[in-house]
């Protein structure tokens, strides 16, 4: 793993921007994208830039079940607001949280991923080491699946909702095997709250108890972290 330490999220976003700029100039075709507060500054760098994504396909990691794309808390809405409305892609896939048949939707998403191999996958990390919505205990060979969110994740994500009772308890998420199939992975994490997860990911055993620890087995991973997130390394 290549670790880049930065002073703050703004510097992290600029470093990440450089990675996207060179990926685009080297002809990247498919970007795996993520939500959460962490990538917002990077998306701002991208939308403020002259970079052109009209020949690039994007595939997002996950979506809440039960929220449609017009719901301000949905990840589709988030992506439209922070990136796609300002920087249209050739095609942007986000898992469907409103499908009548979630298993079929998951299978369909795997087909999309296999038809569009991901060149560069962006990740954040949950406090418990989750990536996407792959919670501790998720099989390393998992593909797209339906997730029962842990209380820790529900509590962590409640900050985005007016009422914590409104936080969905389930999601559809790209699996760990799908994330690992990306040619290159960029993970960003900021703040002291992420320090334990970062230490477990980088130095802990590779275990399904810490989903992000699987990244130790990937050949091309870059991690951008601030000083607070790096304190336990
Ligand atoms: C959610 C998302 C993850 C994200 C995590 C951390 O659980 N499904 O993809 O990495 O939140 O979010 P934040 O960046 O806001 O800390």
TrEMBL record:
A single BP term in Gene Ontology: carbohydrate metabolic process
Record: active site: 62 (proton acceptor), 128 (for ring-opening step), 130 (proton acceptor), 135 (for ring-opening step)
GO cellular component: cytoplasm
Keyword Hydrolase in annotation: yes
Pathway(s) of this molecule: Amino-sugar metabolism; N-acetylneuraminate degradation; D-fructose 6-phosphate from N-acetylneuraminate: step 5/5
The keyword NAD is annotated on this UniProt entry: no
Enzyme class: hydrolase
Matching InterPro entries: Glc/Gal-6P_isomerase (IPR006148), Glucosamine6P_isomerase (IPR004547), Glucosamine6P_isomerase_CS (IPR018321), NagB/RpiA_transferase-like (IPR037171)
Boundaries of every Glucosamine/galactosamine-6-phosphate isomerase domain copy: 23-221
Superkingdom of the source species: Bacteria
Keywords: Carbohydrate metabolism, Hydrolase
EC number of the protein: 3.5.99.6
GO function term, MF aspect, one: identical protein binding
Catalytic activity: alpha-D-glucosamine 6-phosphate + H2O = beta-D-fructose 6-phosphate + NH4(+)
Pfam family, one: Glucosamine_iso
Biological role stated in the UniProt entry: Catalyzes the reversible isomerization-deamination of glucosamine 6-phosphate (GlcN6P) to form fructose 6-phosphate (Fru6P) and ammonium ion.
Family, similarity comment: Belongs to the glucosamine/galactosamine-6-phosphate isomerase family. NagB subfamily.
PANTHER family linked: GLUCOSAMINE-6-PHOSPHATE ISOMERASE
The protein, known as: Glucosamine-6-phosphate deaminase
Source organism per UniProt: Leuconostoc gasicomitatum
Gene that this sequence comes from: nagB
């Amino acid at each position: 793993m290549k670790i880049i330490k930065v002073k703050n999220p703004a510097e992290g976003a600029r470093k990440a921007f450089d990675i996207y700029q060179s990926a685009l100039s080297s002809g990247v075709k498919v970007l795996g994208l993520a939500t959460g507060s962490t990538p917002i500054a990077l998306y701002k760098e991208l939308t403020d830039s002259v970079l052109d994504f009209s020949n690039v396909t994007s595939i997002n990691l996950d979506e809440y079940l039960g929220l449609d794309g017009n719901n301000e808390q949905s990840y589709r809405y988030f992506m439209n607001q922070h990136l796609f409305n300002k920087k249209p892609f050739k095609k942007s896939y986000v898992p469907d949280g409103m499908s009548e048949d979630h298993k079929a939707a998951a299978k369909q998403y795997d087909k999309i991923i296999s038809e569009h191999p991901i060149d560069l996958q962006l990740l954040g990390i949950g406090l418990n080491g989750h990536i996407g919505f792959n919670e501790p205990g998720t099989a390393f060979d998992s593909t797209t699946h339906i997730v029962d969110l842990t209380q820790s994740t529900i509590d962590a994500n409640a900050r985005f909702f007016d009422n914590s009772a409104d936080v969905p308890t389930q999601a559809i998420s790209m699996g760990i095997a799908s994330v690992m199939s990306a040619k290159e992975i960029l993970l960003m994490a900021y703040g002291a709250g992420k320090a334990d997860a970062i230490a477990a990911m980088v130095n802990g055993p590779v275990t399904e108890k810490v989903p992000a620890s699987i990244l130790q087995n990937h050949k091309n991973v870059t991690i951008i972290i601030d000083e607070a997130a790096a304190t336990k390394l």
